[in-house]
Amino acid sequence: MIYLYLVIEFHNPMRKIFRSDQVTRRDFVGGSLSALGIASVFPASGRTQAFTSAGPQSLTVGEIIDTILKNIPVDPLRETVDTLKAGTPDMVCTGIVSTMFATVEVIRKTILLKSNFIIAHEPTFYNHLDETGWLEGDKVYEFKKNLLNQNNIAVWRFHDYIHRHQPDGVRMGVLTKLGWESYYDANSPRIVTLPATPLKYLISHVKNKLGISKVRYIGDQSQLCRRIALMPGASGGRSHIQLIQEERPDVLICGEVAEWETSEYIRDTRSMGTPRSLIVLGHAQSEEPGMDWVVPWLQPKVPGIKVTHIASDNPFSFS
Amino acid sequence: MIYLYLVIEFHNPMRKIFRSDQVTRRDFVGGSLSALGIASVFPASGRTQAFTSAGPQSLTVGEIIDTILKNIPVDPLRETVDTLKAGTPDMVCTGIVSTMFATVEVIRKTILLKSNFIIAHEPTFYNHLDETGWLEGDKVYEFKKNLLNQNNIAVWRFHDYIHRHQPDGVRMGVLTKLGWESYYDANSPRIVTLPATPLKYLISHVKNKLGISKVRYIGDQSQLCRRIALMPGASGGRSHIQLIQEERPDVLICGEVAEWETSEYIRDTRSMGTPRSLIVLGHAQSEEPGMDWVVPWLQPKVPGIKVTHIASDNPFSFS
Predict the structure, then answer these.
(1) Is the Cβ of B263 closer than 8 Å to some Cβ of chain A?
(2) Which ipTM value was assigned to this complex?
(3) Gap between the Cα atoms of A84 and A62, Å rounded
(4) Of A37, A207, B173, B312, which residue is least crowded by CB atoms under 10 Å?
(5) Before B167, cis peptide (omega within 30)?
(6) What's the rounded Cα separation, in Å, for the pair A31 and A74?
């Protein structure tokens, strides 16, 4: 059984950088990010009275988001999943945690750190758009929402924009963790060209460097790999296959596949005699280094606020 | 990175049971299946002259599809992925192969069997709708298309209709293979209630019975499981979560998940103290018994034509 999925573009003008029900500040000027320009969305004077005792170095959640967006050299996205999932822009930030998934465990660790702002790469509520209407009354959703609300934790998703940073912040985090940052080529950013390495050693290398216990792969462990296509996350079968068409890599390393797409394409590729392989790392661990990359990138931009990376880790065991 | 997916309904009236470019028979009466009624789509008199030497017991691909659809007690679907992916309805069938994926290997085995009609549960060309425009010129696509065309192999997808058979043919195949057919409850078909079984033994059982070398799971191996939610294939996070809301199972066994959906929901479920587990079998092997179920179901309906199941197997290794 497969449900029918269609890739659609992010061009619904009704979607704003913040959901309107989350923008509660009385003096918030309103309007879309693209109409106002990023810099004017959260003026420093706008924080609520309740938080002004936090001192002159304090920043609100909205000001931190503004700071991040000002440092991403793209026009504001008319539609994006990078919205607040909990909390409000006027909350004064007591500390930032970056992570892949704002799991219940990550939220608890954030509370212990006395931080109140989680920057997560992936959804909080189990679907890409973080739609919650269908989850009303669901015990897990209600538990997580209450945990966030009762502890005044804000969650913002940093997905579309971090991938649009030049270079892609997730990619640079992963390359650095793999020890491959010197192989980065801005003209062909998704390809790493290595000295010839047997697939077996390539698998060992990525597991060791990324702290992964087990990967799924398709290929011959003795195959020599030079051209590596690196696609952390789950960018979809069509994007994987189009990259392969363009770059003819020896191996594609990705985070996640739909099993009727990329893996079947690689299986048929090998059956026709072309020695092309696939390594599937697991989604969370394939991009977690990107959220570690956020710490040294963001820390100098928010003086006085501690930025901590907490890995949300792989949820799966193997048996 | 996640691409945005939306679940949409199968209600585009432009999609027919056969792609129009595949209906080449001169006397084919034309029109949609729902307008004509299934029985009239492929009258027995319609086979092409070239194939009439196959004898009085012969059936065309179109007649076999008609026979299958007549035995599924639902109104014709206005939109379906159950279309011909290769070949034409007027080809006289020399033998049927049922499988999960019409891989290059399965096609080669079909040729060796001197069969010419593959009935596959999942896509042939690496996307759910088997759209091929974006694959024109792709070496793997062209190789597979030529292999099919040069050997006069027809491929038809049997997905939406087999799941609508009463009971669902894939489900019954999987239950039978698991030795759980006596637990089937038509009032709650997705739930199996077993004697209390530790998760560890449940995992061993499904691996042994389905011939799976390794599964991914989330849970405590000592957890006692009674209520099993069984969802072969990849029906999507929302359907998994809604089933859990309705049925409160101890464990969900499914074929495939999107890793930002079901697995994160289960991870948070466990963090709030609810002992609910997840076993992810792998898509191909989770539904392959359904295509084995096709053989005894279809064979009596097509006398004189050999029906053979060929497992397409799991493409992945683990390291």
Answers:
(1) yes
(2) 0.87
(3) 9
(4) A37
(5) yes
(6) 19
**H helices, E strands: number in chain A:** 10, 12
Residues 6+ apart with CB under 8 A from B272: A104, A139, A140, A143, A144
Q: Do A319 and B214 touch (CB under 8 A)?
A: yes
Omega cis (within 30) before B123? no
Sequential pLDDT tens for chain A (319 residues): 665 543 333 333 333 344 333 433 322 223 333 333 333 334 444 454 334 444 447 999 999 999 999 999 899 999 999 999 999 999 999 999 999 999 999 999 999 999 999 999 999 999 999 999 999 999 999 999 999 999 999 999 999 999 999 999 999 999 999 999 999 999 999 999 999 999 999 999 999 999 999 999 999 999 999 999 999 999 999 999 999 999 999 999 999 999 999 999 999 999 999 999 999 999 999 999 999 999 999 999 999 999 999 999 999 999 9
Closest in B238, B260, B272 to A140, CB measured: B272
Return the residue matching tokens 């950088």: A17
Contact B268 A140 (CB under 8 A): yes
Q: A4, B8: Cβ pair inside 8 Å?
A: yes
A107 vs A115: CA distance, rounded Å: 10
Q: Out of B135, B138, B235, name the one closest to residue A1 (CB).
A: B235
φ/ψ (deg, to 5) at B44: -60, -25
Which phi and psi angles does B163 have, rounded to 5°? -70, -20
Q: From CA A299, how far away is CA A71, in angstroms rounded? A: 13
Listed in sequence order, the residues at least 6 apart from A314 whose beta carbon sits closer than 8 Å to its beta carbon are: A212, A213, A282, A284, A285
Cα B12 to Cα A114, B8, B9, B17, B182, distances in angstroms: 52, 10, 8, 12, 39
Q: Which of residues 16-75 of A touch B (CB under 8 A)?
A: none
**Which residue reads 């389905």 in tokens?**
B210
Residue with tokens 């269609």: A6
Contact A235 B1 (CB under 8 A): yes
Distance from C-alpha of B197 to C-alpha of B183, rounded to nearest angstrom: 15
pTM (2 decimals)? 0.87
- Cβ within 8 Å of residue A244, ≥6 positions away: A229, A252, A265, A276
User: Is residue A211 within 8 Å of A286, Cβ to Cβ?
Assistant: no
In chain B, the residue whose alpha carbon lies closest to the alpha carbon of A255 is B1
Cα distances from A34 to residues A61, A73, A76, B74, in angstroms, run 19, 14, 6, 50
Cis status, amide bond into B89, omega within 30 of 0? no
Residue B53 CA to its chain's centroid (Å): 33
Q: Using 70 as the pLDDT threshold, list the residues of chain B that sit under it.
A: 1-56
Contact at 8 Å (CB) between B116 and B110?
Answer: yes
Query: Which of A103, A221, A235 shows the shortest C-beta gap to B3?
Result: A235
| A230 and A170 Cβ atoms separated by less than 8 Å | no
Q: Which of residues 112-151 of B touch A (CB under 8 A)?
A: 122-123, 126-129, 134-135, 138-140, 143-144
Tell whether B11 is within 8 A of chain A (Cβ).
no
Q: Is A232–B170 a contact, with Cβ atoms under 8 angstroms apart? A: no
**Alpha-carbon gap, residue A316 to B46, rounded angstroms:** 54
